[in-house]
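Quick one, tokens below:
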């Protein structure tokens, strides 16, 4: 069994190599005359291919999991056009978000023997086709979602047309609150997993929402959208980023977790339905689906 330290070193090497390949790909594509966004998309694809090679080599799709939080901060750095107030604040909140989320993954991942339960389920269901499913469904699709969610970030740093104002400050404030919300939810969940002295949701953020960590994640991307739409109002298409991210959590991530609780922890599942997914003011009724 490979230890955690060695496993994390392999993951570090995977992402370092992926980022280097992505950088040279972006530079090469722009030299060929492709626009910045297309070059960035191509680099993101190459980055995913490199990480996929490591997930396949070590037979662990969870190596891809940090991609979600590692890549956007580097997209931010690569997109920097100038060091103004907006750019500095955007870079700060994106790195704050990325470091928090990556650290949360690092402390919970136990090493190469640790594979997310969702990936194990997919492998059981798909058999010999699993690695095709892993690449296209579990890695490439999330890469596309994260890339779309990063569009407001990119336009605010690279294609700004307007001055930094109220909308931008509101977006920064929302992003900071979102990072705190997700961090607090992670801390409460971590304390529960370590101690289990009381039920999750007995108090704190988990008593207010079903998945407060997801709430923080979604709010962060909407914060970036507010910054981006103020910076470049003509780029209205950046709305697709936070919209797709919200849909991903509402229609995939949250239902998957709810179904897992329904099957594994039916008592907790019934309690979970008393708490809302999104807006605390609206309470769900308990429906026994066990």
């Amino acid at each position: 069994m490979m230890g955690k330290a060695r496993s994390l070193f392999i993951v570090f090497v995977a992402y370092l190599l992926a980022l280097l390949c992505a950088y040279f790909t972006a530079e090469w594509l722009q030299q060929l005359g492709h626009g910045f966004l297309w070059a960035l998309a191509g680099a993101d694809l190459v980055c995913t291919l490199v990480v996929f090679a490591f997930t396949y080599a070590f037979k662990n799709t969870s190596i891809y999991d940090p991609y979600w939080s590692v890549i956007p901060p580097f997209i931010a750095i690569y997109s920097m056009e100038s060091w103004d107030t907006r750019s500095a604040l955007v870079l700060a909140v994106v790195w704050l978000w990325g470091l928090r989320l990556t650290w949360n993954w690092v402390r919970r991942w136990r090493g190469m023997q640790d594979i997310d339960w969702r990936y194990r389920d997919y492998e059981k269901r798909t058999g010999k086709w699993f690695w095709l499913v892993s690449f296209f469904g579990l890695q490439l699709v999330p890469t596309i979602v994260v890339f779309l969610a990063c569009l407001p970030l990119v336009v605010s740093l690279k294609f700004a047309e307007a001055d930094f104002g109220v909308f931008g400050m509101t977006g920064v404030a929302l992003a900071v609150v979102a990072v705190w919300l997700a961090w607090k939810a992670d801390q409460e969940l971590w304390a529960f997993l370590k101690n289990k002295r009381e039920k999750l949701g007995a108090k704190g953020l988990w008593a207010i929402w079903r998945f407060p960590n997801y709430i923080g994640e979604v709010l962060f991307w909407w914060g970036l959208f507010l910054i981006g739409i103020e910076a470049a109002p003509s780029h209205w298409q950046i709305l697709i980023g936070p919209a797709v991210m919200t849909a991903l959590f509402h229609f995939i991530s949250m239902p998957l977790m709810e179904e897992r609780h329904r099957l594994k922890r039916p008592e907790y599942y019934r309690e979970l339905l008393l708490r809302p997914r999104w807006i605390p003011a609206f309470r769900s009724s308990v429906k026994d689906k066990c």
